[in-house]
Design goal:
The complex is a heterodimer of chains A (82) and B (154).
Chain A (H helix, E strand, L loop, with lengths): L4 H17 L4 E5 L2 E6 L2 H12 L5 E4 L5 E2 L5 E4 H4 L1
Antiparallel strand pairs in A: 1-2, 1-3, 4-5
Chain B lengths: L3 E2 L11 H8 L2 E7 L14 E8 L6 E4 H6 L4 E9 L2 E14 L4 E10 L10 E3 L1 H4 L2 E6 L4 E6 L4
Parallel strand pairs in B: 3-8, 4-7
Antiparallel strand pairs in B: 1-10, 2-3, 2-6, 4-8, 5-6, 6-7, 9-10
Classes of the chains: A alpha+beta (82), B mainly beta (154).
């Protein structure tokens, strides 16, 4: 299974700056580095798949809350877990 | 004229269309993959076709069966933890192309990986409220019909 450890660590390091400049946008990280910010998931995924194919890369919405799943389950991104 | 129908037209095995809707819920047949293998002008040709997708207004985001996501080599594009009545476990977000032939709709979606096959679920994809955001859905429990229409985005 692919690990996104490098990408998530890079996101965490930049989180303050990302929240200041790109709140609500979708960001892409590859090989532990910030690539770009996009207005929506479609644009972020289109660019990431075209450039990095099957990855690994991180695509995440800056400042997004946990995702509510069926049956009352919740998905919490790694950066929120701390 | 609706954009798509996600209910049941007729009954089966002694069950009415309304009974089937109760049993299975609103369902769309979707194609899933990462890249279309078809020509640019042709309809998208994704790796897995006719996957049953449940429209679930109780879910915020979309889900895909973990085994299906791995079989399709979908990229893991985020990770975290699922918590709920079954406790907590590590989970992944996969990025996939979703094509709905009935709606001629092709889009990238983030899908949380969940164990639908292991849980003997009839559906292998769940489409939540984020998918429904641009649509008006009418659920008619009495007839078994469910329709999706394009709504003006506010």
């Amino acid at each position: 299974m692919t690990s996104l450890r490098e990408e998530i660590a890079a996101f965490d390091q930049m989180r303050e700056a990302l929240e200041a400049r790109h709140k609500g946008e979708w960001v892409v990280f590859h090989k532990g580095a910030f690539v770009a910010a996009f207005p929506d998931f479609e644009a972020a995924a289109t660019s990431a798949v075209e450039r990095f194919d099957e990855g690994p890369y991180l695509i995440r919405q800056v400042g997004a809350p946990p995702i509510q799943l069926p049956g009352g389950m919740v998905f919490t991104p790694a950066h929120v877990l701390g | 004229m609706s954009l798509a129908k996600a209910g049941f037209k007729s009954g089966k095995a002694g069950l009415s269309a309304a009974d089937l809707l109760v049993q299975f819920g609103p369902t769309l047949l979707v194609d899933i993959g990462l890249k279309s293998r078809g020509e640019a002008q042709a309809p998208p040709d994704l790796a897995r076709k006719g996957v049953r997708a449940l429209i679930d207004t109780g879910a915020g985001g979309d889900c895909i069966d973990d085994k299906l996501a791995r079989a399709l080599n979908l990229p893991v594009t985020d990770e975290g933890e699922i918590s709920g009545v079954g406790g907590k476990h590590r989970a992944f977000i996969y990025t996939a192309r979703l094509y709905i032939p009935m709606m001629d709709l092709l889009l990238f979606q983030p899908f949380t990986g969940v164990k639908l096959q292991e849980g003997d679920q009839w559906h292998h994809v769940i489409l939540g409220r984020s998918f429904l955001r641009p649509y008006r859905m009418v659920y008619d429990g009495a007839s078994g019909e469910v329709t999706l229409d394009k709504a003006d985005i506010v």
